[in-house]
Amino acid sequence: MERNEKRVKTVKEIIVDTSKCVGCRACEIACSAFHTIPKYSSVNTARSRIMVVMDEFRDIFVPIRAGQYTQAECNGRNRYMIDGKEYDECTFCPASCPSRSAFREPDSGLPLKCDMCESDPPLEKPMCVDACTFGALTYEEREEEKAEQETRGDIEIAFEVLAKKYGKKKVMDAFTRLSKD
Amino acid sequence: MRYAETGFQLEVDLSKGSIDKVETDPEDTALLLGGLGMNLKLLFDRVPPGTDPWSPDNLLIFGNGLLNGTFVPGANRVSVDTIAPVNGFLGHSLMGGFFGAEMKMAGYDRIVIRGQAPDLVYLAIHNDKVEIRDAGHLRGRLMDETQTLIKQELNDKRAWVAALGPAGENRVIMASIDCGNSSAARTPGPVMGVKNLKAIAIRGTKDVYIANPEKAWEMCSRLRKELDLNPNIGDWMATDEDDSFHHNNFSWGNARVRRKTFWSNELEERWRNLKYDHMSRWTGCWNCPKACHNLIKWPNRRRFSYKCYGKDTYHMAAFQELDFTYEILPIAMDLGLDSYSTPQVIAFALELLDAGILTEKDFPDMPSDIRQKFYYLLHKIAYRDGIGDVLAHGVSGAATIIGHGAEEFDHNTVKKFEQLPIKLGKLNPAYFLMIATGEEMAITQTEGSFPQDPITDPKLKEEFINNWVAVPDRKFHEWFRQWEKRDQLPDQAMVEISDWNECMHYLDDSLGLCGFVSSFRGQFGGTTGYHVWNMPDLITLVAGIESDKDRLWECFQRIRTLARALNNRRGLRREMERPPEDHWAVRDEEYEQQLLTKYYDFKGWTFDGIPTKETLEKLSLGYVAEDLIKNNVLTGDEVTALKDPRANKEKE
């Protein structure tokens, strides 16, 4: 097995200070405009990969960034009581999931996921952060030293796939048989 | 392809139960922009002059500003227009927040409501799916719970609901339409009520297109940063706790008592603590870098938000302190009552009681405590119970019904519309003109571009002039330069100052820009976010409509003249254009009339205050001229005011 040197990874983080959010949705607007083709040619917050969960009269202002697509909805859920009102777990969930329409392309239903505005040349910071004049969203890049990571060669990957499909024993038997020939 | 606008309006007839998505003419957009401009044309074309505002034939229009729903910062205002039951003239109100942008994303530039539903209904809009739904179960529901219940019913937390409270259902003149932290107060509320429309819920997931994406984005990003850093725009009252201006200068009670030394450092400190001890945060509107709303949680009340002078109206009407406003506002808002006119109506009623025109019998079981009296009357009005049924007509309407000298106490209305409670010493000519002639009825919807006061220090004055980008013409520089005393400038300057002030509001209200980053905010500091020099670029880049300063100015003239013609056709004439008699202590009738004549003449209007045929035709409003002639409002041979023989008589 090959072993790599210690590796430094850049971790991109958006820090959300919900106490500073005023609910103007500039983040949603900038996100949706940036991700259209051509860039900035339309606004549609339903296409945004960030959404501000807002319930003004309960003082709820939570910008949430679209996370991973999930194939199945959760089998158990939490319920939150905030300021006397009940919220289900989905309210603050970043996933694009079959149980709801949030973070899906409104036309195709395809899942949306935040890509931190990856772009060539790279932006100084994601569009939502740049649009937030209130400091509710800030951007940080952190260098993180990753533990030694193993990389696997083609053969290992092939064996792994086979083992997964047929079980280790069958693969070992086959290997033994072949090596006798 | 239409940019910034969708090119469609939703037309709902509640009598027939019909729903139509109608394509609009882009030529109209080029002439009238959107928002107020387009609404005015609909009202002029479709509401015949004799129509009773309460009748099903009246229209209620929620019109998106042209730039709403795009990334233009501070563009979110919906112009809500109708024929107002209070006086039979144009009823105009503005709602910020998110309703407009959501409407655009649902695919509509405006929603035009006509007719009257046989029973209480609400309108549910999700893109092309539009339903008129039964609202029987929402009857009598408060503002906040109505919005919450409808969102639950539609299973859509992201929907925006513009609703009425009980006051609107009961057709109270002071009823407002609320949507989250925003409201369309004054005039449209009761019309929505008589149409039996409890609410409009809207959700949209469609694209709003931008004509020149790269350049538009670059300009709007720059503007957002400029607006953010500009200290002269937004609402100062959100952060500046020195509110001596309103408390020492405005009148308390029924616009009656000035307390010139009310404010003190001790009070300021105490109120500052009161506010911040109960404030959750500031909140904002769609894509605006200013957060003007103060979100307050008062004990035993639901959380609520207010902005600007809404902070003062209740406690000033009741001679109380800020804590009273904080405790009564959430109740008044839930009942769906406007916080500008309602306190005046209550103070007016209590004055009539003091004067013996109304008696104890009219107020059965009213508590003796002043605060409790306000609660008592608030509920009486919202539910039209007893004397509340009379007061629900507003100050002017109630005064007429009550009679016996009550009319004398109606001393703060223009065209039956309650004004800011300002009672000053010397006449201010520009303000005289704006208050007398303002089609948008409230001075805050008319003033704002030219500073309220001169700068006396010559160095500071020049500095101000050098930084004064917003002026549409250099002559304003000269007038400002020669300006020493508030009321002293040539009449021509007063007329043109009024004109420019109006211009900015008409443009804002048609483009969707908020007055707090534009029209209203030039009067203190001069540096507005928007002006006639950058608006044309925005229109071109975002909406794809060729524009420049002159074309834009003509749009203003067209829209403003259309508003005037609409009101003329409904009977508006010169003699109605009078600020309250005690608005200034020292008055000069002759001079005021001369001013009015000069203003009319400058506008190309007749001595009676009606646009001439020539003026209308010059502004591509030939169809309006024809209509006014057909309705005997014009003969077509009129001359402008100064050429009228009556003007010469005035001079003699």
Short description:
The complex is a heterodimer of chains A (181) and B (652). Chain A is an alpha+beta fold.
**Residues in β-strands, percent of chain A:** 25-35%
CATH class of the largest domain in chain A: Alpha Beta
Distance between the termini of chain A: 26 Å
What's the structural domain tally of chain B?
3
Structural class of chain A: alpha+beta
**Element order of chain A: H for helix, E for strand:** EEHEEEEEHEEHH
What are the defining features of this structure?
heterodimer, A: 181 residues, alpha+beta, Alpha-Beta Plaits, 2 domains, two-stranded antiparallel ribbon, two-stranded antiparallel sheet, 4 helices, 22% helix, B: 652 residues, Aldehyde Ferredoxin Oxidoreductase,  A, domain 1, Aldehyde Ferredoxin Oxidoreductase Protein, subunit A, domain 2, Aldehyde Ferredoxin Oxidoreductase Protein, subunit A, domain 3, 3 domains, six-stranded mixed beta sheet, 25 helices, 14% strand, globular
